[in-house]
Amino acid sequence: MDRTAAEVFQQIYQDNGWRSTESVSGWGSELQNTAQLIRELPPLLRRLGVTSLLDVPCGDFNWMRHVDLVGLDYTGADIVPGLVAANQQAWATAHRRFVHLDLLRDPLPGAELILCRDCLFHFSHADVFRALQQFARTPARYLLTTTFTYRSWPRNADIVTGQWTPINLEMPPYCLDPPRALLIEGSHETISYGTDTPPVPMHDRCLGLWDMDAVRTRLMRPFP
Ligand SMILES: C[S@@+](CC[C@H](N)C(=O)[O-])C[C@H]1O[C@@H](n2cnc3c(N)ncnc32)[C@H](O)[C@@H]1O
């Protein structure tokens, strides 16, 4: 029987399925792989004049807790209730809250910028488009989300939601415009494609910034 996305990610959380000893959100959320984001995200938000941020999914807030969020209204959201409850207990403040929701189905809280890091690459094509539609329905002005900028192969495989594949959002079937800015993550991770080939570094792991209107325009064209 097919498991729901909620069950899949709940199981990953319970089993520490991404196998990091530092973060249940996986190696990509460790501090050694997010140091550049921690440094570069606040100046980007300031340049954009953004005062509210929806971080969906927020995972365990492992690296975001080190980001300077002063002056920002922050909402973190995730599909795993235990993660949200633990974050709320440990990290909530007057301007920071954590909510439980399924970004594919539930109404999303309003914010000027939606950060969706390390999530769409766990989704099937249909769910990536479902997520983009959900984001586009909000009043957000910007989308900041994971994209692998020079990955030509393998990428954008149509996986079952819960697995992962590197995605390049400029390439089919997504075909977003080039991002208006990139935060290069400086990841130390590698990806293995089997025993025949050596592990490939993830140097091209980035957060791409899109005007939400560009996403809305893309969604007016056909998609699978
Ligand atoms: C790899 S972690 C990334 C977390 C965080 N963005 C970070 O950079 O550390 C992926 C997260 O996506 C959450 N997730 C998966 N599907 C979701 C959905 N439909 N709605 C909300 N959260 C979801 C999982 O529970 C998990 O916490």
> Over all CA atoms, what is the radius of gyration?
16 Å
Shape: globular
By DSSP (H or I, 4+ residues per run), the number of helices equals: 5
Distance between the termini: 24 Å
Domain unit count:
1
Level-1 CATH class name: Alpha Beta
Largest sheet report:
7 strands, mixed
The low-confidence runs, each spanning 5 or more residues with pLDDT under 50, are none
Q: Order of helices and strands, N to C?
A: HHEEHEEHEEEEEH
Structural class: alpha/beta
- Helix content bin: 25-40%
Bound compounds, please?
S-adenosylmethionine
* CATH fold title: Rossmann fold
Notes on the structure:
This protein has 224 residues and is an alpha/beta fold. The strands form two sheets. The protein has a seven-stranded mixed sheet. It has helices at 5-15, 35-48, 81-91, 125-137, 212-219; strands at 52-55, 73-78, 96-100, 113-116, 142-148, 181-184, 190-191, 200-201, 205-211. It has one domain: Rossmann fold, CATH 3.40.50.150. Helix 4 (125-137) crosses helix 5. It is built from five helices and nine strands, in the order ααββαββαβββββα. Residues 5, 9, 25-26, 29, 56-59, 62, 78-80, 83, 102-104, 117-119, 122 line the site of S-adenosylmethionine.
